[in-house]
Design a protein that fits this description.
The protein is α/β, with parallel strands linked by helices and about 300 residues long. The chain has 13 helices and ten strands.
Length: about 300
């Protein structure tokens, strides 16, 4: 269930709730399923998705939404988009299906070492500067957040970079929080198994050190080594929640190419939340198509798409 967001749903659902998903399924006939998402239904779903998850769907996304929701109609046995919307209104639908619907409409594009200059800056400039703040020789833990981590390639890339740095400087340690709204993406991230072609961006030396080659029925796959998996804490988090369950200031936040699906007001509110969770002198990495709405004057630009909290 989406923590703190269920009260919103009462404003959306006005029709009679369909209570028994099994009963719906008994009436479902794939061959006879010919309904289309109407403009009015698109408006209802897109408004719900925006208010619950922050994702903005313009009218040009209607065909995409039709196709993705249709899979969920089949899964629960609803015979129309209106009936599926009503099922989402029920207590059962809110608990069991709403997160599946959000999984279906979320975009989970990600790669290892995506935008590699960010990781070069991280290892050569940012991490040494943070380490330099340590006092009296005491070990310091660098805290990172991969916000919108998808299937885990970004946080595991961060883990490789941090592991290499901490091997050189053993007075420092690290931990990574990785969050996403998609439960399906998080399940894949925790499993940490990737097809061979998906690890191609990983430098060979790091690939040999941190990725385990599968054998037998696992041929064609690699799995992230336990040493790195233990360093990443995967959690479900909705950017629209008023408060994030993050208990200590963060040294580094990566949120790249995630909020391009949000409108400007939602982006500005989210950046304010990021700012509050950054430690003084902390760093924020964003995507090349994003700008620091709402906190422009509070961050120092140190490179394109890399900012430091003043």
């Amino acid at each position: 269930m989406l923590h703190g967001k269920m009260f919103i749903l009462r404003d959306f659902f006005e029709k009679k709730v369909v209570g028994d998903v099994g009963r719906i399924g008994s009436r479902y006939d794939d061959a006879a399923f010919r309904c289309q998402l109407s403009d009015g239904e698109f408006a209802r779903f897109s408004r719900l998705i925006h208010d619950v998850a922050g994702i903005k769907l313009p009218p040009v996304k209607k065909t995409m939404l039709d196709g993705r929701l249709r899979k969920r109609l089949r899964a629960v046995g609803a015979v129309s988009f209106a009936e599926y919307f009503d099922y989402l209104a029920s207590p059962e639908g809110q608990e069991l299906e709403l997160h599946n619907m959000l999984d279906a409409v979320s975009t989970n594009k990600t790669d290892f070492f995506r935008e590699p200059k960010h990781f070069q800056w991280l290892s050569e400039r940012v991490l040494p500067e943070i380490r330099g703040r340590a006092r009296n020789g005491r070990q310091r833990r660098i805290r990172l957040w991969s916000a919108g981590c998808s299937t885990g390639k970004e946080p595991y890339t961060l883990a490789m970079v941090l592991a290499e740095f901490c091997d050189l400087y053993q007075d420092i340690d690290y931990s990574i929080l990785a969050t996403d709204i998609s439960t399906a993406a998080l399940a894949k991230a925790r499993l940490a198994i990737y097809e061979d072609y998906k690890i191609e961006p990983v430098p060979v030396a790091l690939r040999n050190k941190y990725l385990l080659r599968g054998d037998g029925d696992r041929q064609g796959y690699h799995r992230v080594a336990p040493r790195l998996r233990r360093k990443v804490d995967f959690r479900r988090l909705n950017f629209m929640d008023a408060v994030f369950d993050i208990d200590a200031p963060l040294d580094i936040i990566f949120c790249r190419n995630v909020i391009i699906y949000f409108d400007k007001q939602t982006q500005a509110e989210l950046f304010k939340k990021f700012y509050r969770h950054l430690a003084p002198g902390g760093y924020l990495f964003i995507g090349h198509s994003e700008s620091l709405l709402g906190i422009d004057g509070k961050m120092r630009r140190i490179a394109p798409t890399i900012f430091q909290k003043k």
